[in-house]
Amino acid sequence: MEQRSGEKIELRRQSGGYLLDVDPELVDLHRFENLMERSRLVSDDTERARLQKQALSLWRGTPLADLRGGWFSRVREWIERRRLEALSEWARTELRLGRPLTVIEEFGKVVTEQPFAESIIEQLLLALSHAGRPMEALELYASARRRIVDAIGAEPGPSLRRTHEAILREEIEIARPARTHQRVLTGLDEGLSVSP
Fold first, then answer.
1. Which of 20, 98, 125, 147 is deepest in the core (most CB within 10 A)?
2. Are the beta carbons of 80 and 63 closer than 8 angstroms?
3. What pLDDT sits at residue 178?
4. Phi and psi of 124, rounded to 5°?
């Protein structure tokens, strides 16, 4: 939370606990939700991507990192899910704009941090395919699938599987010629690592 000079922030005791009384525009999570909602209301993808990126730029570190307990853990997980949903929305917008390399650059790091986030893996598969790098997308899928099966004993969800099948059938168009790049998948058995 950011406090601006002259803004009133009050912690009040009331029945059942405490209440933090603050302008919602001073709370990053509220600002994030507001920007994401505004992005869903605009029809122009360039403006939508700008609002989404502005919302995502509010993320710094782990939410509620110094607070322990079951409630804080559940809230932290919910907030992280919101961030992953927003990242997926942003990726879809960027891909519609023909900017797969932007998604690859951002999601290479995210997939390493969140190796079971299927929506993120799916958007990265699409970005690699749109960038003319379907073999890397297939290798990423194989690695992600292996991790998911090993961790939970089940196949990836239907959406991720459909994207994989579309790549196999060569149904994903290349957005623009891929630039010269080095192989981006490394350590497939140890960890997922993707770079532009």
1. 125
2. yes
3. 39
4. -70, -40
| Amino acid of residue 177 | P
Question: Which residues on neighbouring strands pair with residue 21, listed in sequence order?
Answer: 10
CB 172 within 8 A of CB 129: yes
Three-state secondary structure call for residue 186: coil
Residue 191 clears pLDDT 70, i.e. is over it? no
Cα gap 124→107, rounded to integer Å: 6
Greater pLDDT, 25 or 159: 159
Q: How far apart are CA 87 and CA 123, in angstroms?
A: 9
The Cα-based distances of 24 to 32, 39, 109, 134 in angstroms read 10, 18, 30, 44
Question: What integer pLDDT is reported at residue 180 of this predicted model?
Answer: 42
**Is 60 exceeded by the pLDDT of residue 196?**
no
Q: Please state the pTM of the whole predicted model.
A: 0.78
Closest CA to 108 of 168, 1, 27, 194: 194
CA torsion through residues 98, 100, 101, 103, sign: positive
